[in-house]
């Protein structure tokens, strides 16, 4: 009985190998529009982006801001397109992971972990990600809701969802980093990426020589 179940289990795993390109595809389809949009936003406001990269008072204070902005735009815009196609997948994850780490530790780190302020989250009031602004958000939301209930069309304003306070923590940047790291190891995916077909074509040509 145990041997039969084990054989069935491993047989099922072998069949699933035919579909192992789907997770890579889904990750690529999730990340690509995020990266393309981020790169495009930086591109259409390049002067403001470069100024923000270089200004030490209200920006990142990075050296060579125009060059750094150009590299970030290239990584996100071109990298996002390549992710969508599944072309050079493993290679393109590297500059994108660097971009996510730079964003996490230069832009978002001071805000802790949560992207959205949530006073009930242990990630907001834990030792590592202590964030006083998150803990104070409950009072601010309560005051804002009271004002809107008294002076605004509250039902219409909240019809699409409740109001939240944007905390802008490292949550999204680290999530994207982890997804990119997964693509670095698993690649663009079987059948559903240009990487797969290019590799197959090259291997067939080499084997026929």
Structure description:
The chain has 2 domains: 24-112 and 169-209, no CATH class; 115-166, no CATH class. α2 (21-44) runs antiparallel to α4 and α4 (65-85) crosses α5 (89-108). The longest helix is centred in the N-terminal third of the chain and has 24 residues, at 21-44. It has 209 residues and is an all-alpha fold. The chain contains 11 helices and no strands. Helix content is 70%, strand content 0%. It has helices at 2-16, 21-44, 46-54, 65-85, 89-108, 122-125, 132-135, 137-151, 154-157, 171-186, 194-208.
The arrangement of helices and strands along the chain is HHHHHHHHHHH
Rg, Å, rounded = 23 Å
Helix content: over 70%
Structural class: mainly alpha
Which sheet architecture does the biggest sheet show?
none
Task: Report the average pLDDT across residues.
Answer: 89
Number of domains: 2
Beta strand %: under 5%
Q: How far apart lie the N and C ends? A: 49 Å
Poorly predicted parts: none
- What is the multimeric organization of the chains shown? single chain
Q: Looking at the structure, what is the overall shape?
A: extended
The helix count comes to 11
Strand runs, count: 0
Q: What would you say about this model in short?
A:
By secondary structure, the chain is an all-alpha fold.
Features:
single chain, 209 residues, mainly alpha, 2 domains, 11 helices
Secondary structure: elements and pairs:
Layout: H1 2-16, H2 21-44, H3 46-54, H4 65-85, H5 89-108, H6 122-125, H7 132-135, H8 137-151, H9 154-157, H10 171-186, H11 194-208
Helix pairs in contact: 2-4, 2-10, 3-4, 4-5, 5-10
